[in-house]
Records
---
Amino acid sequence: MMNTGKSYREKSKRLLFILLFVLIMGVEAACSNSTPPPIVHPAVTPPLSGNTSFVSLSGQSFMYNNSRIMPYGATMYPYWQYNGKIYRGRGWANAAFTQYIDQIISLAQQAHLNTLRVTNYFDGVSYGDWYNTTVWSNMDYLFKQAISHNMFIVLDLSSFRDKTLKQGIYPYDPGLYTAAFSWVATRYAHNPALLNYAIAGEVKCPTSSDLLRPTSTEALTNYYRVLSDTLYAADPHHLISSGGLSYLNETNCGIDWQAIFSLPHINITAIHVYSAQDRMVTMPLMMQWADANQKPFTIEEFGFPQSDGDATRALEFQNVYDLAKQYHAAAIIFWNLGPEVNTTSYEVSPNTPNTWNVIVQHAPSA
């Protein structure tokens, strides 16, 4: 059954010749093609090796590569000047939007931020165009740049809910999004830059007068249950948040935040902090609940307008960062990073130097 030494050597020579021929042809083909190869979307990329690290939890701490990390970052709500126009969220539907992504990554690096949260990426597309090629190509580019710069991305999926709201359609039917959520989670299931998915924050109280509010407390909890289950089924590697909830200091609001945060595939306790009640009531309440239930307490969004004045605003940022430390926040993200100067703007950059310096000083890597 065994080959003789001679036949073995002959077969080895033939095999070596074939391998060399294939290699030469491949090099020639690559050199003759001046067009760069297309970006392979994560959804069709084979699973990465078992040694690939994803952000995980150890108790109430975020972990990456067996080390504790503190996600410290900003929301990326565009203020992009391009061809004489200002683009906000609709910039995501422009192929040149990668220019803005490069600008914001550079700005984040200057501030020693390690996390960016993306929102409003469907503003420039039609309702239901959940798989828009340009939007997701730009998102892929953002993830690629995040990996290159050792940063993390919070993929906020509230853009689905918000686009539905703008159409005047009841947005808390989870069946509207399950197919698209599964598609997105499959796309980024093996991407190490993903910090977590956030389903949708700042939900109106079921007891409010808003016409498109959740129809009931139970309906809202079910919305988060179905969509977190959907994300987990498509991507068991990454963490999932409900999105930062508000109104939790209002006893008659109708948001059963304890039930939502206790769902089996909701890993993170996330809130938005804007009012004095958010700071004085909600933050300590969330710390107590998170400690008792061993989930990380995170501030997914906070901010102050430039109309407060840069000196006052710097003190306001300082206060929130101090409170975050006092109440053991495991992550904190402000609204928002960018160069705009306007009294109604919430953006922070070197153009608002006092506030900028506070952010730099509090960065974990500063």
---
Amino acid sequence: MPRIHDLLDQLASSRPQHALLLEPDTTTSAAALQAMSQALAAEWAAAGVVAGDRVLLVAENCAAHIAAIMACSRLGAWSCGLNARLTAAELAAFAAKADARLACYTVAASPDAARHAQAAGTQPSAAVPGLASSAVRAASPATPQELAQEVAAIIFTSGTTGSPKGVLVSHRGLMHFAQVSSRSRGLTPQDRIYACLPMSHIFGLATVLMAALAAGSSLVLRSRFEPDDLSHALAHLEVSNLLGPPTLFSRWLAHLQQAGVTQPHAPRLRYAYTGSAPMDMALKARVEAVLGLPLHHGYGLSEYAGSLILTSLAPDGLPRKDQAVGFLAEGAELRIVDGQGQDLPTGQAGEIWIRGPGLMPGYWRDAKATAAVMRPGGWYATGDLGRIDTADGAVFIVGRLKEMIIRSGFNVYPAEVEAVLLGFGHIALAAVVGEPEADGNERVVAYVEMQAGHQLDEPALQQHLSSRLAPYKRPARVVVLPAMPMTANGKLLKRGLRQAAEAAGITPDPR
């Protein structure tokens, strides 16, 4: 069965000196990365790592991190990427969840990883400078051979609304999506992709790394997002592809505004894409005005090894002006169903069910969670709510099933209310949740973060909401936070909203 390191080996064979990874202080060729991963695989094999073992990668983006991902693939071990900025307690919980054989740390690229490594009593790698590792346990129980060969990685879901789960991501799914993503973006060896998205998450691993390997493109690799560095990379490092969550774009635009820059220099940039959160039309308009390019959007999830819906141009060939996430990617299938799993007519909103070559084998050692989302015929119930446009078949995401608010007997989709909030001047981020009331009803509560230097004009906001939303959809309360709680991958963490308010000294509404 082909594995993800085969893409690296093919590139190293055809173009060994290709500048694959461009970091601030060094450039790594395809052949050099191949050699690093081969040496590391040999080192880990000597330490007893075998197919099906889990290897924790406590890391931030760097050449050593990618070499470790490829070394796992060579051994048939499963990489379990964890952001180094997690706490020691969080890392320990994930290590237990993964039942890891080995823990590896990118000590040169990340002060946080170095701190964790020191606490763990690691040994430096002789094969790859900048890495250190330690055995978590002497040996792991054997993994069934078929599953051991099938799985490439465990991606821990961000758990924005609940407990994180370990998604089993297959080699087949990653390699299929690498080809789909690279073709949809027209990637070539001349492209350079700005790569600050963590490779410990599916967005960075699949859409950035795997697509680049499939096309033979280069990565301008960064351990963290810094607005100044992005501006420099666009101006001087020939970046042609820019991908990131909405927060990346909003914070970069805020930086440009503070610096008085209205038109950044980006001579090679030809493609911009945002994902991992709903499209904010106000942000889309601002980004497109600054870059002079369409801001593409799609829909994906860890359980499908990347995106299964890709943004395409509107039927007239022009960039879309709506919030559609686009059309199904090659090989993917989708249904919109009601609460009984019956297909709904085109245009009606319901739960999205999917299947295809990218679908996960299941959640790691969690048969109950896997059974809760899998349906007859191999369908995966996403928990996301969507509809298919009657005009051209484009897919729209309208919210999360679990986040849907029942107000006075009506369904309120938070994404719809959030879009209206974000259309009001100077709101940078918005999150809408339902809070229970004594009579069993739910009230709509909005949390917002303002753009730097701006305060909320609540009377004007209420007028804005009244003209755009039915009364039952309007927030009963708007809470202004100094900063929204976010995951390491740039997703808004809804389950942390109340805690963030309490930390800011905002008392609960007595109503």
---
Amino acid sequence: MRFNLLIAFISLFCTVSQAAASGATLDLGAATERSEGSVTVPIVLSGGAGSIASVSMDIGFDAKKISVATDGATPPRLAVLPGPAAKAAGKTVVQGLPAPGLLRLGVFNPANNSAIGDGVVAYVTFVIAPGAGAPLVLTNLPDASDAKGNPVKITGSGQEL
């Protein structure tokens, strides 16, 4: 009987977590003007209702036309920076390129379970290949979790550069 009550409580808690941010979005925002072949795209969280403690996303792109900029350091680091919402919540941005044409990034802090407020959580700078032409499409597959690591329902839109 206690086990059934525990399962019911966990199920209810997870449902509440999912519902709390059912309108949450993690979108690729409007890109800045192209400058010498590069463009910066903000990653924008909205509608989280104070229930989202970490977000991640896979950004897809045509690797023949677009690449992720690096910062010029040795070794070079990807030009992905935390945004004001991530900084205010004490979060870190991590990123990687697990495959050509796929940028995976996360905004979290294992020692900090505070919620991330609405706003820009990261900036990504992309380099456009000379003569790339249009359309240049970025796809977006977002994910989110609450302070206890439970999944939170989130959607997101891509962007055309």
